[in-house]
Structure formats: C-alpha cells, structure tokens
C-alpha cells in the first residue's frame, strides 16, 4: 500500500499496451496511481490493472477513473490533486482509416489540448511526461545515412502523403511543447520506436505487438523498416523521466541497440528465442509484387490508391536513431530484441490470447 504522502500520478490511456506497463512500473515504485481510461467498468480493460495492484511486488495504490480525449474537461477529475500526469492516450494506427482527420489527428491534437487544459485547470501538476514517437522525429526528406536525434522534427508527414499518424503525433507534440512554455510544470517527452514485449491482456496483442502475433499465426505481415524497443524499457523511460530533474524540458529517443530492420527480420529472431513454437515471417508483399505496386503508386491519380508515398518509403528507407541521450540522462540500458520478441510471444501464448503451433518434440 502506498504511503499517503506518496506522489499521485495520473496516467491517460492506462488500459493500453504502453499505459498498462507504465502503471505497473509506478505501482512497483510505490506511487499512488490514478489510471484514466474511457470505461473503467470494462473488466476486459481493467482486470489486469486490478491484478497489478494486488501483486506482492506492488508498493503503491491504484484508482480507476474515466477520461475521454474528445470530451473537453473530462480529465478534470482524473487530474485533481495530481502531482504528475503521464499522457499516453492516442489512436495508434499506421494503416489506412476512412477519415484520418477525425479518427487519428483529432484524438491526438484536440485530445492533447484537452489534457493540457485540464492540467491548467487543476493547478497541482508539477511534471508532465508525454508519450510521443520516433515518427515525430524522423522525416523522409533527410539525407540517407542521417542519424536522427532529439533535435530533429518530422516536417515531412501529412494526411495526403499517407502518414496521418506521424503527422498527428508531430502536431500534438509541438502543441504540447509550445503550450507548456512558462507554465508552472515541466515537460519531458518520450519518443519510442515500434514497441514489442509482454502483453497483459488480449487487446494488447492487437497493438504494435500484432507483428509478433502474425509470426505465431504465420499470417502475412505488413512489411516496413523500423527500430524496435521493449515495452518494459519504454515504461521505465517514462518513470525515470518523471523522477530525474535532468530530464526536464527534454525529449528522448527510446529505441533498442539493434539497427533499423524490416518487420520480417523479426522472424529469425522469434525462431531463435522461441524454439518451441512454429513461427514464420511472411511478408504481405513479395519483393516482386512490392516493386510492381511501387511503380504503379507513382502514377498520377491512380497511384495513391495503390500505395501511399509513406508506405512506399517506409518499406525502402533505412532510418537510424541515436539512443545515447536516453542512456545518459535516464540511465537506460536497452533489452536485447531477442528477449523482447521471446517474452512478447510467450506472454501471448501463456496468457491464452494466441494459440501457437508447438514444434514436434524429438521422440
Ligand atoms: N505501440 C507502439 O509501437 C508505439 C510506438 C511509439 C509511440 N507509441 C505511443 O504510445 C502511446 C500508447 O500506445 P499503445 O501502443 O499503448 O496503444 P494502445 O494499446 O492502442 O493504447 C492506446 C490507449 O489510448 C486510449 N484512447 C484511444 N482513444 C481514446 C480517446 N478518445 N479517449 C481516451 N483514451 C483513448 C485507449 O484507451 P481505451 O482503453 O479507453 O480505449 C488505449 O488505452 C500512444 O501515444 C502512441 O502514440 C506507441
């Protein structure tokens, strides 16, 4: 049980894959946690959070409250009296949606404005940690070979070129950085790569970990190049950023030490880490089909219907990031990707969320 004097931290998107790991990290460190989500009565979304609060390793306490990004004022109660806010809630979707402005950009930008307004209203918050992404940092208009760092901003993505998510997260982070100027709280921003690692519930297998699920199902997977990171390291990054005064005003690229790779390169990593399961990385497009689609996508009018410019570039561009600031200021050591993929797969199977095909054991 947390001491009554323990700092109170409100977490938005607390039921999500990242939010849940942040709640767990805070509870283990003895914080009073107010977990905000849209429906605190939905047992499928909160069962695992309640279990964390009952675990023997929990030194903190948990309160479940409601909050909706698109309802102005809806975080006022969640943030009342809070010492800190960790804002993770967003719609995470890099594939196409029917109305990107409404479905992706508005929850990120209007939602962040609503969160900031509630923080201003309650007046007790001293620290705000925001979950951004590497997609608010990387741009496809940089020279090849450029290593992105915290000084870079994504000024390439737009709704029209097919990256509403990168556009939305960049706009939301810029809004937050400028709104926070001169406020009585300090801001710290975490920019993670594609996040994998252990899941707490079935819904988490549909987050970015869907890549590992597809390996276990041996389904075709979206092929794109990216940098990956373990969700436990991402959660730790948020809480270290919250606790360390040296993190104030900074953004941190949080990616593992593994180089940028294609999603299908996760196949051999899963095979080595989980030799007991049959896994297979099947790209959604073979290289022949991909080059045909790439050529068609350059045609006027028809092109964007075949493949967006973002999709084409994301499959072809090697993008490198430096994680040295996160190591230096937040004291992070990143887990090897082999461990991340293995624990992701095992948590899905052992939790009963994915039925893996077991390899025949030798007679
Ligand atoms: N996963 C990645 O690879 C990755 C990489 C970099 C950055 N990020 C960032 O990490 C954060 C969390 O992502 P995640 O992977 O944990 O995704 P997730 O599992 O889909 O969680 C997203 C959370 O956002 C909440 N949310 C969505 N729409 C909302 C709304 N209108 N009002 C209130 N809450 C809403 C959902 O809450 P409900 O339970 O109420 O539906 C959900 O808990 C996001 O900010 C994302 O941009 C993720």
First-to-last CA distance:
50 Å
Largest sheet report: 7 strands, parallel
Strands, count: 15
Q: What series of H and E elements makes up the topology?
A: EHEHEHEHEEHEEHEEEHEEHEHHHEHH
The CATH class of the domain at 8-198 and 227-257 and 319-335 is identified as Alpha Beta
Task: Report the sheet-strand fraction.
Answer: 15-25%
Assigned CATH architecture of the domain at 8-198 and 227-257 and 319-335: 3-Layer(aba) Sandwich
Radius of gyration: 20 Å
CATH topology-level fold name of the domain at 8-198 and 227-257 and 319-335: Rossmann fold
Low-confidence stretches: none
Mean pLDDT: 93
Percent of residues in helices: 25-40%
Q: Helical region count? A: 13
Annotation keywords:
binds NADP nicotinamide-adenine-dinucleotide phosphate; alpha/beta; seven-stranded parallel β-sheet; two-stranded parallel sheet; NAD-dependent epimerase/dehydratase domain-containing protein; 363 residues; Epimerase_deHydtase; Rossmann fold
Describe the 3D structure:
The chain has 363 residues and is an alpha/beta fold. It has a domain at 8-198 and 227-257 and 319-335: NAD(P)-binding Rossmann-like Domain (Rossmann fold). The protein has 13 helices and 15 strands. The chain has helices at 17-28, 43-54, 76-79, 100-122, 164-179, 210-217, 231-243, 266-273, 287-296, 303-306, 309-316, 324-330, 337-350; strands spanning 8-12, 32-37, 61-66, 84-87, 127-131, 147-148, 186-192, 194-196, 220-221, 225-226, 228-230, 251-254, 261-262, 282-283, 320-321. The strands form 5 sheets. It has a 7-stranded parallel beta sheet with strand order 3-2-1-4-5-7-12, with helices on both faces. The protein has a two-stranded parallel ribbon with strand order 6-15. The chain has a two-stranded parallel sheet with strand order 8-11. β4 (84-87), α4 and β5 form a beta-alpha-beta unit. It is globular and about 60 Å long. NADP nicotinamide-adenine-dinucleotide phosphate is lined by residues 13, 15-19, 37-38, 45, 67-70, 88-92, 107, 131, 133, 169, 192, 194-195, 207-208. This is NAD-dependent epimerase/dehydratase domain-containing protein. Belongs to the NAD(P)-dependent epimerase/dehydratase family. Dihydroflavonol-4-reductase subfamily. Residues 9-249 form the NAD-dependent epimerase/dehydratase domain. GO terms for molecular function: oxidoreductase activity, acting on the CH-OH group of donors, NAD or NADP as acceptor. Keywords: Oxidoreductase.
């Amino acid at each position: 049980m947390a001491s009554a004097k323990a700092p109170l931290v409100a977490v938005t998107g607390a039921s999500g894959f990242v939010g849940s790991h942040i709640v767990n990290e805070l509870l283990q460190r003895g914080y009073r946690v107010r977990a905000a989500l849209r429906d605190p009565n939905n047992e499928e979304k909160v069962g695992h959070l309640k279990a964390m609060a009952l675990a023997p390793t929990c030194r903190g306490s948990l309160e479940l409250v409601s909050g909706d990004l698109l309802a102005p004022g809806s975080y006022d109660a969640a943030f009342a009296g809070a010492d800190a806010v960790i804002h993770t809630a967003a719609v995470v979707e890099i594939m196409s949606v029917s109305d990107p402005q409404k479905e992706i950009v508005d929850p990120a930008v209007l939602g962040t404005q609503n969160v900031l307004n509630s923080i201003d209203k309650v007046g007790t918050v001293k620290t705000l940690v925001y979950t951004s992404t590497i997609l608010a940092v990387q741009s496809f208009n940089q020279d090849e070979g450029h290593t992105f760092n915290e000084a870079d901003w994504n000024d390439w993505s737009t709704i029209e070129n097919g990256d509403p998510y990168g556009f939305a997260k960049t706009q939301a982070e810029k809004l937050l950085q400028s709104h926070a100027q001169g406020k009585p709280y300090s801001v710290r921003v975490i920019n993670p790569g594609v996040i994998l690692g252990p899941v707490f519930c079935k819904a988490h297998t549909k987050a970015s970990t869907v890549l590992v699920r597809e390996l276990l199902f041996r389904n075709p997977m979206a092929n794109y190049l990216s940098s990956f990171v373990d969700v436990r390291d991402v959660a730790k990054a948020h809480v270290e950023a919250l606790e360390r005064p040296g993190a104030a005003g900074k953004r941190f690229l949080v990616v593992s030490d593994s180089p940028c790779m294609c999603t299908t390169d996760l196949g051999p990593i899963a095979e080595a880490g989980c030799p007991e399961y049959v896994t297979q990385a099947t790209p959604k497009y073979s290289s022949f089909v991909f080059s045909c689609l790439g050529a068609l996508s350059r045609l006027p009018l028809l092109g964007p219907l075949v493949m967006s410019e973002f999709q084409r570039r994301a499959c072809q561009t090697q993008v490198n990031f430096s994680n040295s600031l996160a190591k230096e200021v937040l004291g992070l050591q990143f887990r090897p990707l082999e461990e991340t993929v293995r624990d992701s797969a095992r948590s899905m199977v052992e939790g009963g969320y994915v039925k893996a095909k077991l390899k025949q054991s030798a007679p």
